[in-house]
Amino acid sequence: MNFESLLPIWSKLTPSQQERIKTSVVPRTLGKGAVLHNGSVDCAGLVLIRSGQLRAYILSEDGREITLYRLFEQDICLFSASCVMKSVQFEIMIAAERESEVLIIPPYIFKQIMEESAALANYTNELMATRFSEVMWLIEQIMWKSLDKRLADFLLNEATLENSNTLKITHEMIANHLGSAREVVTRMLRYFQTEGYVKLTRGSVEIIDLAGLEALSDT
Amino acid sequence: MNFESLLPIWSKLTPSQQERIKTSVVPRTLGKGAVLHNGSVDCAGLVLIRSGQLRAYILSEDGREITLYRLFEQDICLFSASCVMKSVQFEIMIAAERESEVLIIPPYIFKQIMEESAALANYTNELMATRFSEVMWLIEQIMWKSLDKRLADFLLNEATLENSNTLKITHEMIANHLGSAREVVTRMLRYFQTEGYVKLTRGSVEIIDLAGLEALSDT
User: Fold this and answer.
1) Largest CA-CA distance found in chain A, in angstroms, rounded
2) Cα separation of B2 and B88, whole Å?
3) Phi (first) and psi of residue A101, to 5 degrees
4) Has the ipTM of the complex gone over 0.85?
5) B chain contacts of residue A150, beta-carbon cutoff 8 Å
6) How far is B184 from chain A (nearest CA, A)?
7) Across the interface, which of B87, B115, B126 has its CB nearest the CB of A85?
8) Considering only CB atoms, which chain A residues are within 8 Å of B137?
9) Per-residue pLDDT tens listing for chain A (219 residues)
C-alpha cells in the first residue's frame, strides 16, 4: 500500500508510528451509495481514498440535503474520524458517489499518533482548513449568488466530473446538492431549456449550450 | 500576564517555547469598531482575548455582511493568524464590538512553536473545529430556519449579551448580522411589533414579550 502518496507526511512519522498504521489499517471497498459516516453515529477513522468519489453533505430533520464538498482519489476524509476531535460539534453525512477503494486508519490509532506527532497534527490542521474553506465558499454562494448561477455552476461541474454533457440525474438529486426544493429546481431547469442552455428528458439533463451556461455562471 | 488561563496548553509547552512567547507577545487595546483582521491583507497573529468582544464576519463584493461568530474573554482568535495555515483559503473580517484587551502572539512564533509542539498543533485543531462548528450551525440556520426564527434568536441573544431588553441597534446592523437586506429586516420587525413582541423606536428595539420571542424561536 502506497502510504507515501496517500499520506503526504508519511516520511515525517517515526518507524514505530508507521508500523502502527501499517498493522492497523483496514482496506475497504464502498459500493456506490454506501454511507461511510452518519452524523454522530459512526466513527470509522481517518479515511484515505485510493479511488472513487465521496460526497459530504448535511441533512435536515425533514430530510432535505445540501452538498458541502466532494472527495476524490488521494483525498483524505477527516470527519469520518470526528470522534477524535471533541470540538467537532456538527453532524455530517459522507457517502460514496461511485464505488470507492479506501484505507481506514482506526480512530484510536489516529488519535494516539496525532498526540505524539506535530507533523500529523499540523497536517490534520491543513485538512480541516481545506474543508473549512470549501464550506466558507458554499456560504458565500448561498448568501450572495442567485440560484440560476449556482445551478449553472453545478451542471458545468457535473459535466466535467462525468466527462459527459448528458447528466443522468433527477431534479430531486440536483435539489439535494443545492439545498433547494425540487419544484424550484424544475422551474429553473425549464427556464434554462427555454433559453436553449439544456434539453430535459426523463432522468437526464443534456447541456446543449456550454458557452451560454459558462457566461451565466460568470456574471 | 496570565498565560495559564488564556492558553490552556501553556503547561504542555517547554520552558524555551514559553520564553519565546513571553518575549514576543504584544499587548494591544482595540477600540470599539477597530478592525483586527481584514481578509488576506492582515496577519496579526494568534490573538488571546483578555477582555471585550470581537465579531467575525464575511463581506460581499457589494458590501453586504453576515456574522459568522463572536469571540469573548478567554477566547482565542485563530484566523487573525490565517497566513500561518496555507490551506485557509477564505477571507474573513474580525472587528472589535466593544473595547477589547488582547495579547497577540506574532505569526512566525506561533508557526515555529506549532511545528515543534504536538500539544499546540492539536489545540489549534480544536480551535478550528470549534469555529467550524459555529459556521456549520450558521449554514443550518440559513438553509433550514426561516428569517422570523433567526431574527427572534438574534434579538434574544443580543439581550443576553447586552444584559438589557432595550437594544441600541439599527435595522441595517441587524441585517448585517443576519446577512439579509435592511428592508426585509424592517418588515419583519414591524410584524414583530404588531404581534406585540417588540417596540420600535429610532435606533433601538425594545423587547416587550420575551416569552413570545422564545416560543417563536423554539418552534
Assistant:
1) 63
2) 29
3) -100, 125
4) yes
5) none
6) 14
7) B126
8) 90
9) 789 999 999 999 999 999 999 999 999 999 999 999 998 888 999 999 999 999 999 998 888 899 999 999 999 999 999 999 999 999 999 999 999 999 999 999 999 999 999 999 999 999 999 999 999 999 988 888 889 999 999 999 999 999 999 999 999 999 999 998 898 899 899 999 988 999 999 889 999 999 999 999 887
